[in-house]
Input
Amino acid sequence: MSNIDAFSRLCAQLAKLPGVGRKSAQRMAYYLLSQPEDQVQALADAITTARTKVHECRICGNYTDQDICSICADERRDGSTLCVVRDPRDVAAIERMRDYNGKYHVLHGIISPMEGIGPDDIRIRELMARLNGVHEVILATNPDIEGEATAAYIARLLKPFTDIKVTRIAHGLPVGGEVPHAVHQIVP
Ligand code: ZN
Output
């Protein structure tokens, strides 16, 4: 075991969370220590259970604790339209808008030569394998350089499929935020 005490170890773990600095990690640690043990245990359980049970949907890659996610399993949703997003947070953001009734494909990453992430490192092959019966693919990666490059790459792959309409969401998905208007544009 390391030579730092339990309190410092807790602070160090909390500080690894996104958006949590050293000061807020310390504040959280003090808060947790002031709580009843069973409540802290419930939090710890929720974290480990989610991490163990939640995995990628076999079809779309969204997070689920089932074999396939609730969106893929929902027969009322239009399976002929696929919205391609970078990660499960984007699915949640689009779902909050409540005006999309198609299905999703989660890439779990973005093509990024700078970080050594190529097309084979994200779920593009899985996308190409599920185009049967698909009439529209909406490319909803972020409007930054890597998001645009990934969308362009996928659009090129889809070009030979003349019966599939490829559209691009012109407005990006702010991280963790609301999606104002999903304006669709046909990729030239
Ligand atoms: Zn799914």
In short: The mean pLDDT is 89. Residues 141 and 147 are 5 Å apart (CA to CA). The longest strand covers residues 78-85.
